[in-house]
Amino acid sequence: MSDLKWYLIQSKPGQAQRAAQELTNQGYEVFLPTLTTEKLKTGKRVEQIEPLFPGYVFIELSELNSNWRPIRSTRGVARLVSFGNAPAVVPYDVVELLREKARNQTVQVSLEANKPVNITEGPFKHLNAIFVEYDGEQRAFLLLELLGKWQRLSLPLTHIKSV
C-alpha cells in the first residue's frame, strides 16, 4: 500500500505558479488548481487564469520515501503548512475531487450581442433569451419574452450558455 499523502505548501506572495513549477522540476507531484476568470482591463474583457487558492500549492509526498529537505529552499515556497510540529495532511478525496473538477472545467465562450442564449439556472431555467450586453464582470443583460412582451433582465454569466 502506498503511503503517499497530500500536503499543503504556502507560497511567497504572488509566486504560487513559480513554486509549483520549481517543485515539478525537482520531480515532486504537485497540484495547483486554477480558475478561468474574466476581468475588465482598460474597458475590455480579458480572460485570466488565477489560482483557486491564492498562495497555496498541493504536494504529494511519502513520509518514508520522499526527500522533504529541498522543499523549504525551493524558489517561491514560503513554508509547508503545519499544525504544531506535524505537516497538515489534506484528505486524498478532497484533492482528487478538485483534480476531477479541473479536468472537466470548460471555458465559456464569449457571448455575442443579439445572439440566443439558454438560461441554465434559476427561475427562468430552460428558457431561451437574447444576449444584449455584459453587465459588469460577472453578469449579462438579456431580453426574455414573457407574456408577449420583451423583458430586460440581468443574470450571472454562470447561469447562461450560448445556444
Automatic annotation (TrEMBL):
InterPro entries: NGN-like_dom, NGN_dom_sf, NusG-like, Transcription_antiterm_RfaH, Translation_prot_SH3-like_sf. Keywords: Transcription, Transcription antitermination, Transcription regulation. Pfam families: NusG. The keyword Nucleus does not apply. GO terms for cellular component: cytosol. One of its GO terms (biological process) is DNA-templated transcription elongation. Residues 3-102 form the NusG-like N-terminal domain. PANTHER family: RHO-INTERACTING TRANSCRIPTION TERMINATION FACTOR NUSG (PTHR30265), TRANSCRIPTION ANTITERMINATION PROTEIN RFAH (PTHR30265:SF7). This is Transcriptional antiterminator RfaH.
